């Protein structure tokens, strides 16, 4: 015996009509409706973080980047961090405290 099927070749494959992308898409698109994408609602919050040097601000940057879903500005001289985020205040505050620095919520920041 030769080969896996005993006759020395591969199993014959019957020719099939190949479906094209256009065939498949025209059937799908007609019945597919997508919801309008809505932007993620980010809220702006201001926090006090007892930062004394660039190392402190780097620690804040690290923990916030690890959290994700945030945009932030650090004001080192005034020891403030302004965060635009989808996360709640408690999550943001606990994240800032992971730096080992004293942190507190100042309030919502207006645009």
TrEMBL record:
SUPFAM superfamilies referenced in this protein's UniProt entry, alphabetically: HMA, heavy metal-associated domain
What domain of life does the UniProt record list for this protein's source?
Eukaryota
One GO biological process term: copper ion transport
The record's Gene Ontology cellular component field reads: cytosol
Listed under subunit, the entry gives: Homodimer. Interacts with ATP7B. Interacts with ATP7A. Interacts (via dimer form) with SLC31A1 (via C-terminal domain); this interaction improves ATOX1 stability and controls intracellular Cu(I) levels.
Record family assignment: Belongs to the ATX1 family.
- Name of the protein in question: Copper transport protein ATOX1
- What is the taxonomic lineage of the source species? Eukaryota, Metazoa, Chordata, Craniata, Vertebrata
